[in-house]
Design a protein that fits this description.
single chain, 10 strands, about 20% helix, about 30% strand
């Protein structure tokens, strides 16, 4: 099972649309995970129309229309891996321990908010993933997103940079 993992798209303020290479990944993915801060309903509608399956949450910059359509926390089992998706996890210091305590029944926690790519493991094995942002890099050197291959309970994650014109 192939996944596209994105967050913090901030449309249309930071970008009118997702980069073409992100749309290509969405078209290939069996599921798309979005960890919030869409910022407009049109971006949700567009991704829903193209994704085979969409798992998304709202973020702190998402208004009432998005909050009516999306949960604060989403859970899904994909390829034998238990995922939870949230927007915010708090400060970086102590994140693994805090999230392991909050999400003990989870294999992978996908989050956003910081726009900083993150891929770590808690002591209990919980994997924490933040794909960064494909449209708003803030102080990061590149716009980023993740893909993952999930098979038989295992997961192989790749961080990608958005190529210029991508």
């Amino acid at each position: 099972m192939r996944l596209l993992i994105i967050s913090d798209t901030h449309q249309p303020k930071r970008a009118r649309d997702l980069p073409a290479q992100v749309w290509e990944e969405a078209d290939r993915a069996d599921a798309v995970i979005h960890a919030g801060d869409w910022c407009d309903l049109d971006s949700l509608t567009a991704l829903e129309a193209r994704a085979k399956r969409l798992i998304g949450v709202y973020g702190n910059n998402d208004g009432p229309e998005l909050r009516e359509r999306l949960p604060e926390v989403a859970r899904a089992e994909l390829g034998g891996v238990r995922f939870t998706v949230v927007h915010e996890t708090g400060q970086a210091q102590g994140r693994e321990k805090r999230c392991a305590r909050l999400y003990p029944e989870v294999d992978v926690l996908v989050f956003g908010h910081s726009h900083i790519p993150w891929d770590t493991r808690a002591e209990n094995g919980l994997r924490l993933l933040n794909p960064g942002s494909p449209t708003d890099r803030r102080r990061q050197p590149h716009h980023t997103y993740m893909t993952a291959e999930v098979d038989g309970g295992g997961i192989d994650v790749q961080l990608h940079t958005v190529e210029p014109g991508g």
